[in-house]
Amino acid sequence: MKAIKKLVWQILNYLGLGGMIQLQLLSGLKEDGWFRSFHTKQSVNRKGEPIPWYNYTFIKFLEPRLKPDFQLFEYGAGNSTIWYAQRVKRVKAVENDQNWVNLLQAKLPKNAEVVYRELNENKDYIHEIKAQNQQYEIVIVDGRRRNDCVMASIEYLKPNGIIILDNSERADYQPAKDFLQTNGFKSLDFIGMVGISSHNTCTSIFYKSDNCLGI
């Protein structure tokens, strides 16, 4: 039996298929749920539960550092909104797509809210963070007009608050990164594969000393 197994793997490796099959049988990608997310085109873990569309390294870093008394604001809603709401006190998110908001609302727990705001000259989408005149432990910028959203956010961060900027490897978001650095924020980058797609992407945390994540 061992000889047959060895022969099969030799053939598969010769055909260039051994690595792909091994990844499906036993691998970090399987444990993280990448194959399930790829086939369902949903950002989910191996059990089919919603997770943020961040790289897996960042999710593993962030999850144990979230606390049940945190309040979050999120630019761009989705499975991440559900995932955060299961771990913190309250999540408010803003979206610019009314149909997407309608689909999400039926899935949200009671401590999560998603509102629709237009991308207009009044900057209703960007300035939604000001609506309740409160400060947040975490602001997630993962939607539209990210540079403007980052710049609008720092006034509404608690003294120990942090900003999460997704897809931060994109050159388009360099103004936001420069702005935060100028305002005294340090950054920590996480690079790796995300669900559904097969490429690497970067998610960055911007923080100051004595931050809520204990970095």
What is the N-to-C succession of helices and strands?
Answer: HHHHHEHEHEEHEHEE
- Oligomeric grouping of the chains: single chain
> What share of residues are in beta strands?
15-25%
Class from secondary-structure proportions: alpha/beta
- What percent of residues adopt helix (DSSP H or I)? 25-40%
Strand segment tally: 7
The CATH H-level superfamily is Vaccinia Virus protein VP39
Low-confidence stretches: none
Number of DSSP helices? 9
CATH architecture: 3-Layer(aba) Sandwich
Per the CATH scheme, the topology name is Rossmann fold
Tell me about the largest β-sheet: 7 strands, mixed
Instruction: Write down the overall geometry.
Output: globular
How would you write the strand order of the largest sheet?
3-2-1-4-5-7-6
The Cα radius of gyration reads 20 Å
- N- to C-terminal separation? 51 Å
Q: What is the count of structural domains? A: 1
**What is the CATH C level class, in words?**
Alpha Beta
Q: Tell me, rounded to a whole number, the average pLDDT.
A: 90
